[in-house]
Amino acid sequence: MKKYYGYKNNIEVNVFDTYEQLSEAAASFIAERMKANPNIILGLATGSSPVGMYDALTAKYEAGEIDFSAVRSFNLDEYYPLPPENDQSYRYFMNENLFDRVNIDKANTRVPNGMAKDVEAECADYDVAVAAAGGTDVQVLGIGGNGHIGFNEPAEAFTAGTHKVTLTENTIKANARFFASEADVPRYAVTMGMGCIMSAKSIVLVANGKAKAQAIADMLTGDVDPLCPASILQLHPEVHVFIDKEAASLLG
Ligand code: F6R
Hints:
11 strands; binds fructose -6-phosphate
């Protein structure tokens, strides 16, 4: 494993040979924070990238190393409209990949409500709840091939608050593989904005594969630019990146 330090040394980049190794390292980082603070507030991500990390966290829980009983969590995003019972919802994903496998109290877990009647009120309430909790202690992120984090897509400007987004044709096509057909992919999502993400005390970003290499390079070495949403992390005081060789292949 080699380490590469990004902008102003606030971003620690850990490069591994394999996905299993990066997943284990990210899980170990979170496990250490959980041991130090049993009441930790986790910000959580879905998608394929953190699946190995959730498996490794589950293994640590089963080995008696970590305890989720006092842990609280806020997820980054949810499709809209989509009910939590739908097997493509991010609530369903979290139950399957982590919550149903460990001793977390689901009442302490929050995923944006993909069925909220008043979506603006849901977004405002989400921001209030995260702020009332004092922000997350560790926010887990994946990254899109275009540099998106959460569903904050490349845009003219960063958006601070939790908000409803219209999914781009690219994202709909990329996510269609998980649904029966492209027509079944919801056209909207609710996502944390950059305010919530940046209010996290520390950030863990996991990524693997060549398809992420350009986004990782732009995030670390490009300008802070809303056209690469993840580049805003250059302004965060504590970011830990766990990636494989392929995702690191465009770093110097
Ligand atoms: C998921 C999320 C997204 C993903 C990103 C990468 O909650 O917010 O930003 O992290 O789209 O997805 P994967 O890991 O499937 O490549």
